[in-house]
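dumping this here before i forget
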Amino acid sequence: MESGNSFYELFPDAKNFSQTKMDIFKSAIQLFAKSGYSNTSTNQIAKTAGISEALIFRYFKNKKGILQAIIDPIANNILPDVLREFSREILHRQTANLNQFLNLVVNNRIKFFKANFPVIKIYISEILYDDSIRKQVLNAVPRDVYQDFNDEINYLKQNNAIIQWDNNQIFRFIFSNIFGYLVSHYVVFPNQEWNEKVEVSNLIDFLARGLDPVK
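structure:
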């Protein structure tokens, strides 16, 4: 995660946290991102924060309460704003070139992920295992962003620049592959070396070949 103001952009309520609550919160983010929510104990969070375990329960009630304090503000407030910004930057261009469109989408999402890595890694890990969090994240996507995506795909279709699949299928194809790239590199195999520039290029090429209207 970026230091400085970006933390408070993700968690504006944290500006009102006491130093002890902030230490617990940041320690939990660090440990959840490193070891996963299920593999992190409140005792470990307390030791990393340099406080007694009892203080965790005073501020957050339980470990689930800390997770919700991380998840809720992003799902309810930050994610919709981020997606609308993504829509303004990428989906309002009326790009008639498939490779250009995919380059913009893939690199934009990877850049966002890397800038907020610890928190987004927690999201990815929990989305894989917690159905309620998965639904919460999906419900946070604004309807107008879906509409903007549909408009951009329809524009590509009108210019015969993309395959004539159902738009929902195109959406799933693009974002499931981006999601798979992020999960494999940052969650499943975080210590494995790879050439990011080459693999991102290969991901875009794979998507372009799959969505090419001429096969």
